Amino acid sequence: MAILQFPGSNCDWDAEHAVDQVMGIPAKRVWHKDSLPSETEAVVVPGGFSFGDYLRCGAIAQFSPIMSDLKNFADRGGQVLGICNGFQILCEAGLLPGALIRNDCLDFRCLNQALQVEDSNERFNSSKINHSISLPIAHGEGNYRVKDSTLEELESNDQVLLRYLDNPNGSINDIAGIRNLKGNVYGMMPHPERAVEPHHPCDDGILILKSFFDPLQTSSPVELVST
Amino acid sequence: MIPNPDPCLNVEITPELIAQHGLLPVEYENIQEILSRTPNLTELGIFSVMWSEHCAYKNTRKLLKLFPTEKKDKNAIGQVLVKAGEENAGVIDVGEGWGVAFKIESHNHPSAIEPFEGAATGVGGIVRDIFTMGARPVLLTNSLRFGDLENEQVKRLFRGVVSGISHYGNCLGIPNMGGDIYFDSCYEGNPLVNALCAGILRHEEIQKGAATGVGNPVYYVGPGTGRDGLGGASFASRELTEESAEDRPAVQKGDPFMEKLLLEACLEMMAIPGLVVGIQDMGAAGLTCSTCETASRGNSGIEIDLDLVPQRETGMNSYEIMLSESQERMLVIVNRGREHELEQVFEKWDLHAARIGEVKNGDRMVVRHKGVVVADLPAKSLTDEAPIYDQPASEPVHVTEARNWQIDSVPELEPNEVTGALEKLLGHPTIGSKRWVWKQYDHMVMSGCTVEPGSDAGVVRLSIAGIDKYLAIANDCNNRFCFLDPYRGAQIAFVECMRNLACSGAKALAVTDNLNFGNPNKPEAYYMLKECVKGLADACAHFDVPVVGGNVSLYNEHGDGAIDPTPVVSMVGLIDKPELVTRSTISGTGQSVVLLGGFSDELGGSYFLQTQHGLKEGKVPVVDLEAEAKLQGLLIGGIELGLISSAHDLAEGGLLVAMLEMLFGNLNLGAEIKVDALDFNARLDALLFGESQGRALIGVSPENLSSLLDLANQWGISAHFLGQTTENEVFSLKVDDKEILNSDVSKLRKIWEDAIPTMMQLSQ
Fold it and tell me: What pLDDT, on the 0 to 100 scale, is given for residue B594?
């Protein structure tokens, strides 16, 4: 399990902590100038402010050396999860459709957000995760936008993963997270890695991360490791 | 000396020029004596920033000596590892080989002129002070003070400051746990922006800011130097005037992305064993301060060549390069022969690492530019020989008046006026919810946020150190009390802050303080400063909680005069186990509500006097340090025994406001409260809204009530059972069997929650 680290990433440690130390799935941070290790089974593109959000959020990270490896990995069907700035990077890199623009309130929002889980596919659905959950959000540019025809496709192909219950940023159709058509690339603004431990506002992040990691865990189910 | 290669710098040093540099004639004579010659313009600039109040504490150094800087009890946790003034920040022991570095610093003047950049770079500066020590920053807080929020200019400053802090801290990815915010017309035109950062490190990782080892190379790391922030330290040591806006170039421009890179690169470099000899942030007075301070601490000389300094503007002269306060830069001294190890790290992070000089024998700080020596000064003369002043002090008339104030001068509150008075208090922006502010701060990054902002203290789990301990942080300072009685006011700031920690289950370890005052050359302003420092020092000594660092910001004046004295006290505390983490909001229905520390019969200096009568006057509540220590012992003891499920300190707004704040959690509760105070014989307003000290409200599960009351008895603290929380969202209050308040909690909550958003004309 690889967690990409760009200059300005700041949730890379959090993601590694949640996956490796809390959930017990071996994870390792990989610097953006290095290449993706050949044994990589899944990739998390973590949150933060890659390249200081200069130009546009995620716009510069798409040119990082590791991105060609990531694209190859995704093309071969590898599992990729982009969280917050990671979601923005995946959109900029064309691995997911659409773009994330400034919140409609114009301010940064950090809160524990109520979300509705959509029945996207056998891996990501409400019977597996729960119909409604809450996860921390922390972003200034989480307002999801996509052209009408693509939005129709996203909806008709069940590519929406999560919707906001009380839309904090003006996202179209209350979209908080999506997947690609193939079902191996996920992107979401909420932070599941911040909702995995007893001192967190809730532990719904475990359900999300579990469903993402499912195939990796066919032999050993994910158990919470107390820290 | 040979003339400066830039002809514009070869000017005669006139009295006007000296005055423009904020130096007194006698100080200039002093400089001539030290040098046995006339300084050139570059040297004058160097002296002016190093001898400014901001860097030299020339008006406060004597007073600051009153603060205890280490613990008397050598066995207690929280021993001081690095004392105040020794390095960029103090460090205390938190057990198991870990230490916490923390410090607060002001960025008041820049924020008054450019609120966004001023506040943002305030965060940047304090974060550098912490990671310079070798610590990984784990939390931020702020103490903010603004004028009356009805004023459009104040709204602009408030919005700008909050978004500047949010922008910088969020990008760095350090959780901001909120802090404290007060609104008072005394801060109009001169807001206070005090930023605090705490970081964690192993004892053996503590870095020093000393240049030692003759021949060791001196590196400049970080982005290039520009003309921004020229002379910021001396700008901060002047009063603000209408013309201050013209000082805008003295405000620095921040780039949190650069700081994030610098932070990671420095921590990576410092993790290489034996590489770094000394490291110092280029903060106030930039390259000047970092070179002379490292040389002075290392008892060495230092020589730098400005041609080697990375620059992002062309044609900069030596004066500009030495005085620039461009942000996100560091000076690093490494062991000779290991230069490539440093260079490798900074290359990875795409940052400049330029070798600009080396450590020398002797005691001189020598600066070269274009092949010419442009400054040659004894390093210690800049850091240790600044003049120290003991200013005349005289007690202002209003302080004498406040001492003789009588409660009878204010008409009594009728029972039917209680609801209205409560609503006014809840709607005052100082008391109202600060969610509008902290929902703009990423307080959950780094996975440690345990108690979110809005409770008595912010609590962060030290997950990043891999230990199951919790760091609690609280800031406090009620300017109204300090204005009316500076000695007591400062003590109240201390005890309230410590009580906030106790209510959260945390044992206080140490203090960092930010002394925000007016012009010390005015006897009345200096009196306030002196009394506040004395009060604070005495409280620190009484509780054996040392001061490990801080900041002084004087000359906070604008238009009508000085700000109220504002000695901000910030305290860190430690919670050993997760089950001891305690919140200020009631944890459920059927909880018993108990008042610890008795009813109030004092009204002086209260917010009630402000919101109900428009008065800033009165005798400040008594501070009984013994009783306070017992109360806090009871709170911590009760929490450790599992008898206290929630606790909230009584402060601005008194008993009723605290009671409602406890109900404003997520659970939509009500409460039936009875106050039987017939034999107490206090006025109704003092009873419900007075701000007597040494008190807290607690929530107790019914089965623990009698044990809790016994425990309070053992500690000698009065405990009054006031009633219980209910499922229906109604707050009813009976005083001596007469119902005087019956209100929907949701309605009161809305007033409290909307206090700031309504004024900022934004929806929740």
Answer: 98
How many domains, in total, are found in chain B?
Answer: 1
The reply to whether A118 falls in a domain is yes
Option in B171, B444, B468 nearest A136 (CB): B444
Catalytic choice (A11, A84, A92, A200): A84
CA distance B750 to chain A (A): 18
ipTM score here?
0.94
Contact yes or no for B731/B610 (Cβ under 8 A):
no
- Between A13, A49, A110, which is nearest B439 by CB? A110
Query: Which of B606, B569, B608 lies closest to B477, judged by CA?
Result: B569
Active-site annotation holds for A84: yes
Mark the ranges of chain B whose per-residue pLDDT is less than 50. 763-764
Residue of chain A whose alpha carbon sits nearest to that of B257:
A52
| Mean predicted confidence (pLDDT) in A37-48 | 96
Residue corresponding to tokens 């003309």: B227
Does residue B43 belong to any structural domain of this protein?
no
- Does the CB of A108 have a partner CB in chain B at under 8 Å? yes
DSSP letters, B648-684, are EE--TTHHHHHHHHHH-SSS--EEEEEE--GGG---H
Q: Do B170 and A138 touch (CB under 8 A)?
A: yes
Catalytic residue selected from B54, B369, B443, B720: B54
Cα–Cα distance list, B190 to A153, B555, B559, B560, B569 (Å): 55, 10, 9, 11, 19
Does residue B351 fall inside a structural domain? yes
Confirm whether B568 is domain-assigned: no
Mutate which: A56, A107, A199, A225, vs B, most B CBs within 10 A:
A199
CA distances from B36 to B45, B212, B318 (A): 17, 27, 22
What's this model's pTM, rounded to 2 decimal places? 0.95
Residue A191 annotated among the catalytic residues of the structure: yes
Is there a contact between B170 and A8 if contact means CB atoms under 8 Å apart?
no
- Residue A225: inside a domain: no
pLDDT tens-digit map of B651-703: 999 999 999 999 999 899 999 999 988 778 889 999 999 999 999 999 999 99
Chain B contact probe: residue of A108, A112, A141 with most B CBs at under 10 A = A108
Is the Cβ pair A227, B468 closer than 8 Å? Answer: yes
Determine whether B54 is an active site residue.
Answer: yes
* Among the partner residues A110, A136, A198, nearest to B578 by beta-carbon distance: A198
Q: Name the residue among A33, A110, A199 with its Cβ closest to that of B442.
A: A110
- Interchain proximity A199–B439, CB inside 8 Å: no
Whether A156 maps to a domain, the answer reads yes
Longest dimension (CA), chain B: 88
Taking CA–CA distances from B350, the nearest residue in chain A reads: A7
CATH number reported for the structural domain that contains residue B97 in this entry: 3.90.650.10
- What was the pLDDT predicted at B719? 97
Q: Is residue B266 part of a domain?
A: yes
What is the C-alpha separation between B250 and B406, in angstroms, rounded?
47
Domain contains A227: no
* Residue A219 scores a pLDDT above 90: no
Q: Which DSSP helix (H) or strand (E) runs through A93?
A: none
In angstroms, rounded to a whole number, what is the distance separating the alpha carbons of residues B530 and B63?
7
Distance of alpha carbon B449 from alpha carbon B442, whole angstroms? 10
pLDDT in tens, B434-483: 999 999 999 999 999 999 999 999 999 999 999 999 999 999 999 999 99
Q: Is the pLDDT score of A216 beyond 90?
A: no
**Would an 8 Å CB–CB cutoff place A24 in contact with chain B?**
no
What is the count of structural domains for chain A?
1
Q: A107 in contact with B at a CB cutoff of 8 Å?
A: yes
Instruction: Tell me how close the Cα of B196 comes to any Cα of chain A, in angstroms.
Output: 20
**pLDDT number for residue B473:** 97
CATH of the domain at A199: 3.40.50.880
Distance CA B365, CA B359 (A): 10
Q: Which domain holds residue A75?
A: 2-217
Residue B121's domain comprises 70-383
Strand pairing category for A185-188 and A79-83 = parallel
